[in-house]
Design a protein that fits this description.
The complex is a heterodimer. Helix content of chain A is 25%, strand content 31%. Chain A is of the alpha+beta class. In chain A, helix 4 crosses helix 8. The two termini of chain A are 36 Å apart. In chain B, the strands form three sheets. Chain B has an eight-stranded mixed beta sheet, with helices on both faces. A six-stranded antiparallel barrel of chain B has the order 4-5-8-7-6-9. In chain B, strand 1 and strand 2 form a beta hairpin. The chains are: A alpha+beta, B alpha+beta.
């Protein structure tokens, strides 16, 4: 049994849209149950961030992985029962995607001739404005178990990393917070609060980083490949990493013999953008991912395992390293 | 009692594109056998279920093949270059999960030139060659689910729900003088090729092809012909002109049992069109399950339409003189 695959499947089947993560029974509750045995305390804040605290003395260290995902919310319902939705309405990429509504009922994402998105829910009724919908494509272990094709590698795969990394760490010379953040997809808003709440000395934002090794776009500028190991994006359009942390990350990888890959990204952002505002030394750690923000994202299992090793070593390394 | 939802799921697991109907054919044959006198397969792979009689010779068809892909070659990055099987559109396909007959799973994408490829997550061309060979076929790997008590969303409603309809008809068939042929045909999606063999070999007095009819009840549809849940659809004309005698037979059967039917004119073709032109000529028509999203990975039908269609056929099979 591949535990990474089972965890990805569990989290993707409970995926929650930005702003709904902390509602009862949603992704935050699922993650909390999985994390509980491995940390000393768990608490939340008004943004819904889920803090999993492993107490210790010394430097305050923080990791974030966002638990919200992209999707759609219902703006209006017409007299034939079709749900008109708002969200990343890219007809070319998302047409005919099976969807799962917030109450578990299902539908299909379609587009009208003007390119406006709606969800066909058949004969089902009694939906409301503000109901949310996420991708309901299957999570599959492919390529002989080496890779995973799934909705929401971004960033539930990063949540899987933290859930595995926090286990049986033993005593570490630092005070560690594994934070499952909210509302990253709408502007890294959860992390902005979480950074202020914790005020860590050092913080790492885990996320999916888009690959350049699929054939989809000639304009894709990421140099990352599946299987290239943890991805360090030292700079993107909204964030520049603290130089000390660059050396720290590459140094650990070299020491442990973990192949890693570097890139500079032109657009986008991660929780690192807003974490930095709280004043600590911040960097991001990526899992190389193909077809990001599609219902069929793809990553390599060994890349995720390598990030787990990296996170655990960041926790356990000697105080002066 | 055949369960439509369970059978749809089972047939979706077995069905393969045109030319590769053997697995689903064997399964359908095993289900039909108890209700007929003989079951046999012809040279092209059509499965013929014959209930003998001395009266009118009536042929019912539903096709077992589905649209999909065939692997052409593995490119130098390890992606599978494919050709489509059947007349479906590239614009329906980006990010669709697919599954090869060999078991390899992946997703469909378009490269920067707009050509289709399937990403099976192979780490090298050599590894890809071990997972998929030229000539291997692939099908949609999207889920089968309900959208309300009587609405099912699935890949390959076309034409598996019509194969199910023939089974539902067989199950309720009363004794008849007529000589009845329930045929699961092959290669309809690439030109109704199985049907031409059926027409030639069987030379029925009356032919009814059970296929799917495109609904026009979705946002943006200007034509208002048939809708989901409006009853099975009598095809007046598509690229063929169906025979009025055959059409009246179906309407008479519907009237006898008090069933409401719709009427449609559309484009495309069915097995009935080809059988109509069999040597000597055959009185033929198409009787359809209304469907939304034809030839997409998420097709939608109403099970009441299906049940009514089966009941009309069961009456016609007995009472047609």
């Amino acid at each position: 049994m591949c535990e990474i695959f089972e965890l990805q499947k569990l989290l993707s089947s409970n995926a929650s849209l930005s702003g709904t993560e902390y509602a009862p029974g949603k992704i935050s509750d699922v993650i909390r149950k999985l994390a509980e045995p491995y940390v000393d305390e768990i608490f939340t804040d008004a943004m819904g961030n889920l803090y999993c605290h492993k107490k210790g003395e010394g430097e305050k260290l923080m990791f974030t992985a966002h638990m919200d995902v992209i999707g759609f919310y219902v703006r209006s319902i017409d007299e034939n029962g079709f749900l008109w939705v708002d969200g990343p309405a890219q007809k070319g990429r998302l047409i005919n995607t099976p969807m799962r509504m917030s109450d578990g009922r299902k539908g299909v994402l379609r587009f009208d001739p003007d390119g406006k998105a709606y969800i066909d829910v058949g004969e089902q009724r009694e939906f409301k404005l503000g109901d949310t919908a996420v991708f309901d494509t299957p999570t599959r272990l492919i390529s002989g178990g080496k890779r995973i094709s799934t909705p929401y590698a971004d960033a539930l795969a990063s949540c899987v990393v933290l859930l595995l990394a926090m286990r049986d760490l033993g005593s570490c010379p630092r005070d560690i917070y594994f934070v499952f953040s909210t509302q990253e997809e709408v502007g890294c808003r959860g992390a902005k609060t979480a950074g202020q709440v914790i005020r860590a000395d050092m913080a790492f934002a885990l996320d999916s980083h888009g690959c350049g090794d699929s054939l989809e776009s000639a304009k894709n500028t990421e140099e990352l490949t599946l299987g290239g190991g943890p991805a360090f994006r030292f700079r993107d359009g909204k964030f520049i990493a603290h130089l000390d942390t660059n050396e720290l990350l590459t140094g650990i990888c070299d020491r442990l013999g973990i192949k890693h890959q570097l890139c500079i990204h032109v657009g986008g952002g991660t929780d690192a953008t807003t974490l930095q505002e709280a004043g600590g030394k911040v960097n991001s750690i990526g899992i190389a991912t193909r077809y990001t923000h599609s219902p069929a994202e793809m990553y390599q299992v060994s890349d995720l395992e390598d990030v787990v090793c990296l996170v655990r070593e960041l926790c356990r390394r000697k105080a002066d390293v | 009692m055949f369960d439509i939802f369970e059978l749809q799921k089972k047939l979706v697991e077995l069905a393969l594109p045109s030319g590769f109907e053997k697995n689903v054919g064997e399964y359908l044959a095993s289900l039909a056998k108890p209700y007929v006198d003989e079951v046999y397969t012809d040279t092209l792979g059509n499965v013929i279920c014959h209930k003998k009689g001395n009266g009118k010779k009536i042929l019912f068809t539903a096709h077992m093949d589905v649209i999909g892909f065939m692997a052409g070659y593995i490119d130098d990055k390890g992606y599978v270059r494919v050709m489509k099987i059947g007349g479906h559109s590239d614009t329906n396909l980006p990010n669709t999960p697919v599954r090869f007959e060999s078991g390899a799973c992946g997703s469909v994408h378009q490269d920067s030139k707009g050509d289709l490829y399937i990403d099976i997550g192979a780490t090298s061309p050599e590894e890809a060659m071990e997972m998929v060979q030229p000539g291997d076929v692939a099908v949609f790997d999207t889920p089968v689910f309900k959208m309300g008590e009587n609405t099912i969303c699935t890949p390959y409603a076309d034409d598996l729900i019509c194969c199910i309809t023939l089974l539902l008809c067989l199950e309720q068939l009363k004794d008849s003088e007529n000589d009845l042929y329930f045929c699961f045909s092959v290669q309809e999606e690439v030109g109704c090729r199985g049907a031409s063999v059926l027409g030639y070999n069987i030379r029925p007095d009356l032919c009814i092809a059970v296929d799917i009819g495109s609904c026009f009840d979705e946002p943006g549809d200007k034509v208002r012909t048939i809708r989901l849940g409006g009853g099975p659809s009598v095809g007046l004309k598509d690229n063929n002109l169906y025979d009025l005698i055959a059409i009246r037979e179906v309407e008479a059967a519907a009237q006898r049992i008090g069933a409401k039917v719709q009427h449609e004119i559309s484009s495309g073709g069915t097995d009935a069109g080809v059988i109509q032109r069999a040597p000597g000529g055959v009185s033929s028509m198409a009787f359809s399950v209304p469907l939304r999203g034809i030839h997409t990975p998420c097709e939608i039908y109403n099970t009441e339409d299906v049940k009514v269609l089966a009941e009309v056929l069961a009456d016609l099979a007995v009472n047609s003189k």
